[in-house]
Amino acid sequence: MRGASRLALAVPLAIVAGMACTSAAWADETDESTRDREIVVTGQAQPYAVDAQNSTTRLNLSLRETPQAVTVITRAQIEDFGLNTVDSLLRRATGVNVDSAETDRTYYNARGFDIVNFQFDGIGQPLSYGLQNGQIDTSIFERVDIVRGATGLLSQTGNPSAAINFVRKRPTKELGGTASLSYGSYNEIRGDVDVNTPLNEDGSIRTRFVGSYEDGDSYLDYYHTSRLTLYGVAAADLGPDTVATVGYSWQESDPRGVSWGALPFTNADGTPATYARSTNSAQPWSTWYSLDRNLFGDVTHDFGNGWVGKVSVLRRARNQDSKLFYVYYSGDTLVAYPGAYLDKLRETTVDANITGKLKIAGREHDVVLGVNYGESRLVEQESLDDDVIGTPLPGNTAFEGSFPYPNWGDYSVTADYTTKITSAYGLVRLSLADPLKVMLGANVTNAKRSGTSYDAPFDFDKTKFLPFAGVTFDLTGNLTAYASYATIFSPQVYLTADRSNIAPLEGKTYEAGIKGEWNGGKLTAAVAVFKTQEDNVAEAVGFNDEILQTIYQGVDAKSHGVEVDVAGEVFAGMQVSGGYAWTDIEDDEGNNARAFIPRHTVRLNASYTPPFLDALRVGASARYQSKIHNDYIEQSDYAIVDLMARYQVTRNVSVAVNLDNLTNVKYWTSLQWDQAYYGAPRTVRGTLGVSF
Questions:
Q1: What span, in angstroms and rounded, lies between the C-alpha atoms of 330 and 333?
Q2: pLDDT confidence of residue 511
Q3: What pLDDT, on the 0 to 100 scale, is given for residue 3?
Q4: In this structure, are residues 105 and 341 in contact, taking their beta carbons and an 8 Å threshold?
Q5: How far is C-alpha 18 from the geometric centre of its chain's CA atoms?
Q6: 398 φ/ψ angles, rounded to the nearest 5 degrees
Q7: 115-172 pLDDT tens trace
Q8: CA-CA distance, 616 to 166, in Å (whole number)?
Q9: Which residues neighbour 566 within 8 Å (Cβ) at sequence distance 6 or greater?
Q10: Rg of the chain over CA atoms, in angstroms?
Q11: 594 — phi, psi (to 5°)?
């Protein structure tokens, strides 16, 4: 959908949203879709902590009961600091690094390794090519859970880094909603609306609609964003023990002036290059259009006596149409490489699980059993203008936006492959004594792929047994010690110099720590130490100019470190979230590895509602990373501070302001490759809103 039809949807949404901006938030809830929620005015202190999560084991456990490191970004944090995209959200998560080497392609890592598992309500398939194309708008999510370490129990395949679980908003039995309109630097405008509607008197049939539209220019030359997100979900109580839910999300993104590659770190003579912060290697005609649609449904049934079954289905269809412009050095001159691509991805994921309780030897124990199947097909086509590839770009012409629109040729298929992943998993949580719980579980996964990519075979058929073990021991009424062992594996799509696939990645994580909760569970904290081993890590060793593909080799790597996490209400009105992470990464010979990843990071988000003025809410978000380097340049450590304030004018109307990058720090967004761009300067955004 483009042009007039796209505008026809966007304008009504913006008008509705223009009534006001978000001044209320839905109260936090567990994953039980049948639980009622109340509308809570955001002038009050909203929680940065949750009571329970099931992203780790399918069991609804508190963070203290979970023998793995978990960070939760709640709806309150998203709204306080305007975390409207997955990138801005994950930059606030303890131990997570966001590498944006290009404007619309992003890599994520934790504990030294790439994050490739994005799940939605606990199911999903690994990111194609191990990265995220475009942005995911966060307007449709209630919260986001980040489980660090190996997550092979519930993830189909992946790395021993982390899994990100996006928990969607669900309909409730109360009528109400919020709307928002914001305007900020570089003419960025955004509208949001979130409406919950029960369809009958008792709310046994209920719906929810969420929509957002964002459009704006950028500090980067030529770059313009435009994103429309629509989401509808309905739930019905099919009886006292059964709930059926079905939903559909639509996200259309049409950015212009997108970068493909970015600014070279060095000049032709190898000396470090410097640029104005606004410099962009893209052209005004560069685009990366994306349409992402998700249809999902689930049925949950309570069998009684603590046994609950759930069947979930997710169907995803993504289409991308990009016209891109890449620059690279050929000798001592930058040259052009424009390319046009069509991308079609189709995914189907099905999960069925049952959780329950068994009484053995007078004690109650938890059980999880489940199966999961995923199938995806990716088809990519390419079109080139051979007459202009390699065109010299002398002087500053590479960044002037003056390269003519190419005469694209016919499209040809460059990649076409199908992946099928089948898993069976199970876990028991044994209550050996009141303070002592032991978890024993495993996953058996078979992953198959058939097809080609750039004329190279993309075939594998691998089966792996993945054990999991964990233990928790309550030391006091507030503190719990824990330890865990988790595994994961992932067949890989990276090509070696002979254009064969690297052997499957295998990873494992040893972790131990102490968790605590205070203030009636409203405040949680954790300290973790971990050791991670990853074999056959894909390491870039060169670039094939003929097919524009990076060449890799498999290496072994390991990491170890310490993480500190805190979330919740410190005292009345004060909410905090964040932590510290130290990670040391080495190759199989003990040498420093992946130096583009900071060894020390700090994330701290806080908001405060003073008791003498409960209509006011103020907050700050700070993130720090230590120095990093690659083969070309070194970037010093830096810290970025964001500020926010919101005032509740009436019970239903509020005004807010956000100031990002207070000290106007200039920094590279990534050192993972040999090109990147500079992060955003100081920006401001104002918001006006209503709840109803």
A1: 6
A2: 98
A3: 45
A4: no
A5: 28
A6: -65, -20
A7: 999 999 999 988 877 889 999 999 999 999 999 999 999 987 889 999 999 999 999 9
A8: 29
A9: 523, 524, 525, 526, 576, 577, 578, 579
A10: 25
A11: 50, 55
300-350 per-position pLDDT tens digit: 999 999 999 999 999 999 999 999 999 999 999 999 999 999 999 999 999
Gap between the Cα atoms of 432 and 546, Å rounded: 61
Q: Which residues pair with 300 in a beta bridge?
A: 243, 310
What does the alpha-carbon distance between residue 24 and residue 44 come to, in Å, rounded to a whole number?
9
Q: Which residues contact 623 (CB under 8 A, 6 or more apart)?
A: 91, 92, 601, 602, 603, 604, 639, 640
In the 8-state DSSP scheme, what is residue 19? T
Neighbouring C-beta atoms of residue 660, cutoff 10 Å: 21
Q: Is the pLDDT of residue 22 over 50?
A: no
Per the structure block, which two tokens stand in for 450? Answer: 């058939």
Give CA–CA dist 185/142, Å, rounded.
27
CA–CA separation, 665 vs 682, rounded Å?
8
Beta-bridge partners for 186: none
Name the residue type at position 111: R
Q: Is 203 left (phi over 0), alpha (psi -120 to 50) or beta?
A: left
From the list 24, 77, 23, 83, the residue with the least C-alpha distance to 50 is 77
Helix or strand (DSSP H, E) at 79:
helix 75-81
What are the b/e assignments for 624-636, b being 16+ CB within 10 Å?
bbeebebebbebe
Question: Closest Cα partner for 534 from 476, 475, 594?
Answer: 594
The one-letter code for the residue type at 110 is A
For residues 427 and 467, give the distance between their C-alpha atoms in angstroms, rounded to a whole number: 10
The full DSSP string for 482-528 is: EEEEEEEEE----B-TTSPBPPPEEEEEEEEEEEEEEGGGTEEEEEE
**Taking the C-alpha atoms of 524, 43, 83 and 628 in order, what is their torsion angle to the nearest 10 degrees?**
-60
Q: What is the pTM of this model?
A: 0.92
List, in order, residues 6 or more apart from 3 with CB less than 8 Å away: none
Beta-sheet strands, E only, within 254-306: 263-264, 287-304
- Which run of H or of E encompasses 426? strand 412-433
Whole-angstrom distance, CA of residue 594 vs CA of residue 673: 11
- Cα-based angle 642, 643, 648 (whole degrees, multiple of 5): 145
- For 505, phi and psi rounded to 5 degrees? -80, 140
For residue 541, the tally of other CB atoms under 10 A from its CB is: 12
Task: For residues 352 and 348, give the distance between their C-alpha atoms in angstroms, rounded to a whole number.
Answer: 14
How many Cβ atoms from other residues are within 10 Å of residue 76's Cβ? 25
The pLDDT tens digits of the residues spanning 254-293 come to 999 999 999 999 999 999 999 999 999 999 999 999 999 9
Asked if residues 659 and 644 have their Cβ atoms less than 8 Å apart, the reply is yes
First to last CA, the chain: 31
Asked if 119 and 164 count as a contact pair (C-beta separation under 8 A), the reply is: yes
